[in-house]
Structure formats: structure tokens, C-alpha cells
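From the thread on structure requests for the teaching lab: each student submitted one protein with a one-line request. Submission from student K.M.:

"Model YCII-related domain-containing protein from Microbulbifer rhizosphaerae, C-alpha cells only."
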Amino acid sequence: MKYLGLVYPPESTALHLAPPLVAVALIAARDLNQAVQRALALLRLKNNIAVLRRIVPTAGQGFAGNTINEEIAMKYLCLVYSEEDKLHSMPDSPEDPECQAYAESVAASGRMLAAEALKPVSSATTVRMRGGVVSITDGPFAETKEQLAGFYLLDAQNLDEALEIAAGIPAARVGSVEVRPVRQLEV
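Reply posted by the TA:
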């Protein structure tokens, strides 16, 4: 991702229509956290005020074409849980075409980074490391009433937007959707 870093003097306030710029930088980073770290290193902010904006290519243009600014979004993981043996037998159970259509609509909105349905819980394998010894067990990590059935990885402006998308996931009618912010790892 590319970010535009705009640095203003410390006395800048919202009342200024056009405060003077102290510095400008184009920052390439994989996420906002890395962009902030690079901005701190590159711009030597001291007491200045910095604004970071993600640069988003307009449709079909790529970064060589025109770009627009977009508020910086955050990643959210929507974990879809349901009772596997009842998922397709309840009156409100979604059919696959409805689930596919919803996933396509979220993808078309530009908010979906990834989404997948999972194979039955019986196909799971659990790995544990205890005292330097690896233990591999067939089956899920824990016996629960509801099992993880799939996920959506979203790029949303805030939690409210992620919750709105999660509420529309068809399987939420017969199960639940856990929405969690993603913590970026520095790798």
C-alpha cells in the first residue's frame, strides 16, 4: 500500500484553511502500523502534526494512473460459526447460491480481502506444542456446540461497518459471526 504523509507545524489547528506544510512523503508500507513507523523515521516529526492518508488507485488505473484518497481502513476477521449437523436443515438455513451472492456483493464493494468456507470439522487436525514436543490430533481444537464454518477477511473503515457486513452474512441467521480486529504482525 502507499500512503501520503503530510506534516504540519504544531500550531496548526482545524481553523486554518490551508496550514503550511512542513514536509510531504510518499510512504510504501504493507499496513498502517508500518506506515506510521516509517513516517516517524522519515519525517522526524518532533512536535509537528502528521496526517497519513492511504492512496487508493481508481478503478482499473493501478498506481500509475489517477489516485484518490481514502480514509484509512482496518482489517476485521468475521468468523462464521454454526452447528454443522444442523446448518442446512433449519428453516432459516441459507442455501449455497445465497451465500455466494452475498460474498460477491461484499467483494464488489471493495471491502473483502478473502472469504472461504471450511470443510467439515471432522477434517480438522489440531497441532499442540508442549514442552518442546509436537502433538497432532485429528479433529477440532475443542468440543463445542458450534463449529467454525468459514470466514470473511474485511477491509472496513471501522467496527460499525464490519458489524454491518457481518450481520448480512446469511449463516448468521442460524449461527453466529464473531468479528475481531486483525493485529498486524511485523514480518
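TA comment: Strands lie at 2-8, 23-28, 49-57, 67-70, 74-82, 112-117, 125-130, 133-138, 147-156, 176-181. The CA atoms of residues 88 and 96 lie 9 Å apart.
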